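Lab channel / #folding
Pinned by the channel admin:
"Please post every new chain as: sequence first, then the structure tokens as a reply. Keep commentary short and put observations after the output so the thread stays searchable."

First post following the new format, from NK:
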Amino acid sequence: MGILDEIKLSYRQGGALTKLIYINIGVFIAIRLLQVFFSFSSGSGSLMDYPLLNWIAAPADLGSLLLKPWTVLTYMFVHYDFLHILFNMLYLYWFGRIFLEFLNPRQLLGVYFLGGLSGVLFYIVSYNLIPIFQGEVPYALLMGASGSVMAILFAIARYAPEHKIYLLFFGGVRLKYIALAALLLDLISMPQLQNTGGIITHLGGAAFGYFYGGSISAGRDVTIGFNRVMDRLAGLFKSRSKMTVTHRRPMTDMEFNARKATKQKEVDRILEKIKASGYDSLSKEEKRILFDASK
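Reply from TO:
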């Protein structure tokens, strides 16, 4: 079995977490390979000159967003820098595994997408309403899974705050403190105005994750409706099988005897018709019924 076959098999057999990681890595590799060809053909290796990102990363500009609404979903699978995707996928794997210890894969998918949508909403609103960011709106692009990852972390930290994970040099640390440390690091970094869009997205993802952890603890799962919508959308792109499968329950003795009696009456009628008018007087359907009964 070749490497590609092994990857395909691993993807098909893997769960929701595995598929999310594979899709992110696959998109990253495709972006970088296409950028190599673009660089040779255009003579420019600048990230800002790379047109593909303009169609899959989420713009802060509302006019551009209206022309490319799909980017609110695609951006959360887009990475350009190696360290960016490396750390995002490591965090997704670690916190995703913990999430799946308590909740199910469909809930993980729902939190990934809804957390990402919450993150991009925070990003767009902040860039268009806060004066300090408005000068960057025309060219600002958002990409990366970090908002979704923060949603997963905060969801499980709210749902199981006392759960411990063991860190090198620190020993067992409760999830609630891991989430709090991640939040404080973002807040401390914000005044430096470096990766501000990403930090705002983290806060949006964290807000949804915290909300979801509370709602699921109370017995309400807000991802159910979203997952149903996504299932319907996915169904539009699946090829429909030409084979139809019907399931019939076994007949009861009463139903079997009634059907047998009905068939026998029809055969008796056909036999009486033969006595009166001969075999040639039968219709094609009557001949078939008589033939089936004689088997």
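NK: The radius of gyration is 30 Å.
TO: also worth noting, The first helix runs from residue 3 to 13.
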